[in-house]
Design goal:
Blueprint: H1 3-17, H2 33-43, H3 51-64, E1 68-72, H4 75-85, E2 93-97, H5 102-110, E3 114-118, H6 129-139, E4 140-143, E5 146-149, E6 154-159, H7 171-180, E7 186-188, E8 196-197, E9 200-201, E10 208-212, E11 225-229, H8 232-241, H9 266-276, H10 279-297, E12 303-304, E13 311-312, E14 318-321, H11 325-337, E15 343-344, E16 359-360, H12 364-372, E17 373-376
Parallel strand pairs: 2-3, 2-6, 3-16, 7-10
Antiparallel strand pairs: 1-11, 4-5, 5-6, 8-9, 8-13, 10-11, 12-14, 14-17, 15-17
Bound molecules: pyridoxal-5'-phosphate.
Residues 74-76, 100-101, 103-104, 162, 188, 190-191, 212, 214, 225 line the site of pyridoxal-5'-phosphate.
Length: 387
């Protein structure tokens, strides 16, 4: 990008957000957040028992169309509880993508399992069905009903795609491959609240789907996560293990398995309820922003990543693809030096010291994307909100 274009990118950002220093994705709290927080404090129900926890779960279930929703302290805990619920155990392997945020893979390791990193598609930046099918057909055999990885002799017990920046992976194809191999699919849809493929909300294609409400996500509860599902047994199991594995009883302390203290506190949930009241408005403003930047970058020969024609994307973090690693680094240096936060996509998980010995395929597309994708400021401009 030429200096002139970079300067105008910076100026426009400063104008949109009405400040010199622009963050990548600032949360906005101008609705009922403070009112509900006061209500929670007055009620003294600040931990996981409380009416806002139930309300938040019901509202997320309604919004996504899921039968059940279980809230957790954060998205990572939600992923961990989801993997345990699907039966992922010590010594198992879970297929995921190398191009993801570290939490996806940490959750696999918390179960004592190991990741297998497969490549992503160039357009969606999500797990590639072609690579998935090829890997499973080439490297696995079925033994006593389990899918065994011939490269390691370990069972593969789950497939976990991630919807990068809220752009749907080829989820229908991924689900049909999972079905062919009789493997459960868990969607890391932490970035995808508000995104749909063929009208169905992401996180609802797999047996379980996970959302995050960290402060940089599309709506926030400070820290928070949610698991959505239509499966009643999975729901009951999730409720059990996220509440210390306690057997329900009037007064006795009985716990029948190792559980976790993973439930979302009421104090956080009430912020989520307030944020959800404005989700539609937030999504609409983010769409405007994406349309604007698409128009800005098009004449420069730079494209926004924005999914397929049957996708409705939430525009969580707007991503542009530069032409080379060099152009990307120059863009990042120039804009950040001027106080406008832009960020590269993640370092590949397979390049991190903890995961460098994991099995992976060639990851050519993942590498290319890691070299060229950057995110630009994508928060909702405060002055555009109706209140
Ligand atoms: C944010 C995120 C998570 C984890 O969420 P936290 O709430 O921060 O624990 C997991 N996976 C992906 C892809 C994310 O972006």
């Amino acid at each position: 990008m030429e200096k002139h274009s970079l300067d105008s990118f910076i100026e426009i950002n400063q104008k949109i957000y009405d400040k010199r220093s622009v963050l990548l994705h600032e949360p906005v709290f101008s609705g009922n957040e403070k009112t509900y927080l006061n209500d929670v404090i007055d009620s003294t129900y600040v931990s996981y028992a409380g009416k806002y926890v139930d309300q938040f779960e019901k509202k997320i279930a309604t919004f996504t169309g899921a039968k059940y929703a279980v809230s957790t302290v954060n998205g990572t805990a939600a992923l961990h509880a989801a993997l345990l619920t699907l039966g992922v155990m010590q010594g198992d392997e879970v297929i995921t993508q190398s191009l993801t945020f570290v939490a996806t893979v940490n959750a696999i390791k918390y179960c004592g399992a190991d990741p297998i990193f497969l490549d992503v598609d160039e357009d969606t930046m999500g797990l590639s069905p072609d690579h998935l099918r090829h890997f499973l057909e080439t490297n696995t055999i079925k033994v006593n009903g389990r899918v065994i990885n011939k490269l390691s002799n370990n069972p593969i017990s789950c497939i976990m795609p991630m919807h990068t920046f809220g752009i749907p992976a080829r989820i229908t194809e991924l689900c049909s491959i999972a079905q062919d191999f009789d493997l459960p699919l868990l969607e890391d849809s932490a970035e995808a609240l508000g995104s749909r493929s063929n009208g169905k909300h992401l996180g609802r294609y797999g047996k379980l789907g996970v959302l995050s409400f960290n402060s940089n996500k599309i709506i926030t509860t400070g820290g928070g996560g949610m698991i959505i599902t239509d499966d009643e047994n999975a729901y009951l199991k999730l409720m059990h293990i996220t509440k210390t594995g306690k057997v329900s009883h009037k007064y006795e302390f009985l716990h029948d398995e190792i559980g976790y203290n993973y439930r979302l506190p009421n104090l956080n949930a009430c912020v989520g309820v307030a944020q959800l009241e404005r989700l539609d408005e937030i999504l609409a403003l983010k769409k405007d922003l994406a349309v604007f930047w698409s128009g800005f970058f098009a004449p420069l020969g730079i494209k926004l990543k924005n999914g397929g024609k049957n996708d409705l994307i939430n525009n969580w973090l707007i991503a542009i693809q530069l032409r080379s690693h060099q152009e990307r680094s120059h863009f990042l240096d120039y804009t950040n030096d001027a106080g406008v936060s832009t960020r590269p996509i993640w370092t590949l998980m397979s390049d991190l010291p903890m995961f460098k010995n994991a099995i992976s395929d060639n990851l050519l597309t993942s590498r290319h994307l890691a070299d060229t994708i950057v995110n630009i400021p994508s928060g909702v401009p405060r002055n555009r909100l109706t209140r």
